[in-house]
């Protein structure tokens, strides 16, 4: 299960997934864009259900149920590069939904943005350079909505 899959291409590159069903979840606009880009390319994974779900909407569990996802099977959840774009409440709600859908033996792999000065300064610097050079600023539409201390996120995952 890849949450916020974006342009992740593992299922088209990894023969190791030949017998695995990999659900890809992303918000509707990104999901539509990806499906269009993929076109007729066949994945190497056994099956790749593409689910359009806004993780800020609390509808993940229902969408999974409707797609035939089996919560009794152990699942590896991959949630990379997404958490900063969600408000803290949506991160907590998504983790709670993941917990209800996780059979024993399931795993969760995630990364997040911590509250550190260097990345915040880096981001600010990039924006200043873009503005000074009159270039479009893609970060305008991608604000960081939640930053975490390791202990805070560990508590939510416990
Ligand atoms: C930086 S990309 C990361 C993509 C991929 N996981 C990777 O690591 O390459 C962030 C992804 O999160 C998705 N995303 C952001 N907010 C979301 C939301 N509310 N619900 C679902 N997906 C969301 C975006 O559409 C985008 O595909």
Structure description:
- This protein is an alpha/beta fold.
- The chain has one domain (2-157): Vaccinia Virus protein VP39 (Rossmann fold), CATH 3.40.50.
- It contains six helices and five strands, in the order βαβαβαβαβαα.
- It has helices spanning 10-13, 28-38, 60-67, 88-100, 117-132, 150-157; strands at residues 2-3, 24-26, 50-52, 76-79, 107-110.
- The strands form two sheets. It has a three-stranded parallel sheet with strand order 1-2-3, with helices on both faces. The protein has a two-stranded parallel sheet with strand order 4-5.
- Strand 1, helix 1 (10-13) and strand 2 (24-26) form a beta-alpha-beta unit.
- The two termini are 20 Å apart.
- 18% of the residues are buried.
- The mean pLDDT is 95.
- The structure holds S-adenosylmethionine.
- S-adenosylmethionine binds at residues 4-6, 8, 26-27, 30, 54-56, 80-82, 85-86.
Key terms for this structure?
158 residues, alpha/beta, Rossmann fold, two-stranded parallel sheet, binds S-adenosylmethionine
Radius of gyration: 17 Å
**CATH architecture classification:** 3-Layer(aba) Sandwich
Q: Going by CATH, what is the homologous superfamily?
A: Vaccinia Virus protein VP39
Q: Mean pLDDT, nearest integer?
A: 95
CATH class: Alpha Beta
| Hetero compounds | S-adenosylmethionine
The CATH topology: Rossmann fold
Alpha-carbon distance between the two ends? 20 Å
Decide which structural class fits the backbone.
alpha/beta
Q: Biggest β-sheet: count, sense, barrel?
A: 3 strands, parallel
* Strand tally: 5
Question: Helical segment tally?
Answer: 6
The 3D shape can be described as globular
Low-pLDDT regions: none
Q: What is the count of structural domains? A: 1
